[in-house]
Amino acid sequence: MDKQNLREQIERIINVPLDKTTISTATWKNWVKSAQATGQPTHVMPPTLIEHEDRCYMLWKQGSSQTDLLHCAANLLSERERQWLETLLWLDLSSRKSSSSTTGGDEQQAVQFGQWIVERLQAKDAQAEVPDSFSWKTKMFAPVIPFLLVAEHSHREGPSYAHLYKLLKSYFGGDLVIFPLSDKEWCILVPESLAGSGEQEEDPDNKETMEEMLTSFCLGLCELLAAEWVGESNLTVAYPFTPVKGIPGIVSRMRETIYLGRTFHITENIHLPWELHLEQLVYSIPDDVRKQFMKRVVTKTEQFGDSETMGTLQTFFQYDCSVSETAKRLYIHRNTLLYRLDKIKQETGLDVRSFSDAVLIKLILLLYKVTK
């Protein structure tokens, strides 16, 4: 049974809403030891339900470094309900372990590889080489196109390795490498040969062609995932590289790209690094410098917090400062748009139809998002 459905059924039967939290696996093991030391009854081994600081914690998903728990106030559960929950959770975890062991070595290798990437990121070892202990190292000498996928739905469980791999393999038309960095964050390495990009190496305009191709892959992949997997997701991609050395650094940059995209372009799901150069520059500016700049350039910064003004300006810039195209996209008359632009000029002293003022307003819009 799907974990989300299982949780809903448990809540319906015991008539108690359950909260979810994540702690380190070491902390969970210490809690279990403390519970056993105080004589708390245990009906299954290893324990799947303990009482800690007046709350009942139920083992939901255990990893090597982090453990997910469901919990509620201890006084809301009867002794019979506790015994039933202990047994149910133990059976669920046992069945999943059995299923995982029959999946094969690839899933285990994927989890271990993802953990190694996270450890290298924490150690700030961006140029680390893939250790010989990973059988996957033989796959890391050929150029790949890396994607980073982040699921948005916090109330849903992440996908199974087998499901996601099958879906991506059918989309790209060949074998690839996927590994989780967390429950809702996956890195995808697609052999460059599957994209057919190698045929364009002699093209003098290869860089632009490559970006168009990667954008196309992202658009198609995002639509596929929305329809077949977990719904809304955030996705980014990087240029082809050989992952045997330096893959932690690539993952770090893709994480930064998604963070910048979600910060500056909230309504978008695909975040492309070559479209975020200005956003990256703005975000690197110290906070006190940003605020000083805003005070010097415009006195009425609240004007840029108005949804109508913000939407008008973003659309104006999106369509290359074209008055006619902007009016068309906003479904307003041209004169209505001109009135709005004149109003912005009167209230801020900046005319978006002037190149120098347009540059300043673009910067202000970006700065407003990170200073507010």
What does this structure look like?
The protein has 14 helices and nine strands. It has about 375 residues and is an alpha+beta fold. The strands form two sheets. A five-stranded mixed sheet has the order 6-7-5-8-9, sandwiched between helices. A four-stranded antiparallel sheet has the order 1-4-3-2. Helix 11 (about 305-320) packs across helix 12 and helix 12 packs across helix 13 (about 335-350). The chain starts with a helix and ends with a helix.
Overall, the morphology is globular
- Secondary structural class: alpha+beta
Distance between the termini: 43 Å
Mean pLDDT, to the nearest integer, reads: 84
The largest pleated sheet is described as:
5 strands, mixed
Secondary structure: helix percent: 40-55%
Low-pLDDT stretches: none
Total helical elements: 14
Features:
372 residues; alpha+beta; 5-stranded mixed β-sheet; 4-stranded antiparallel β-sheet; 14 helices; 9 strands; globular
Quick take:
This protein is of the alpha+beta class. The chain is globular and about 75 Å long.
Task: Give me the secondary-structure topology.
Blueprint: H1 3-14, E1 19-24, H2 25-37, E2 49-52, E3 55-62, E4 66-73, H3 79-103, H4 105-122, E5 144-151, H5 161-172, E6 177-182, E7 185-191, H6 192-195, H7 206-228, E8 233-237, H8 247-264, E9 270-271, H9 277-284, H10 287-297, H11 307-318, H12 323-330, H13 334-348, H14 355-371
Parallel strand pairs: 8-9
Antiparallel strand pairs: 1-4, 2-3, 3-4, 5-7, 5-8, 6-7
